[in-house]
Amino acid sequence: MIDGNSTKAEVLTAVRQYVHALGHASEELKRDREVVLEAMKHDVHALFWASKELRADRDFMLEAVKQDVRAFIYASVELKRDKKVVLAAVQQNGRAVYYFSDELRIEMAECWAKCMDCEVKNE
Description:
By secondary structure, the chain is mainly α. It has 7 helices and no strands.
């Protein structure tokens, strides 16, 4: 059984078999990129137990979103507004817009409407 005293190797082995094991790991291991990405390979929802710091780390979330677009759900509020992270999510799967905030969807719709308006004027 995994607990706060379990080693990184033990947690890595455990998350391959039971993704919820991450929830029992130490805070240090919940901040460990390798451990969390390994857990994510088996179930993206392992990000639920990842540290807030890791979910706010731009490089980590870019990697996570490229692995599974649903990782965007667990990104920090700031990263959900980050154009690079948003673009990575959409490039991975266009359905990522379902995970965007209402604010971001409105902004995208306004941008799309302006583009459409320009096309109509140019015809």
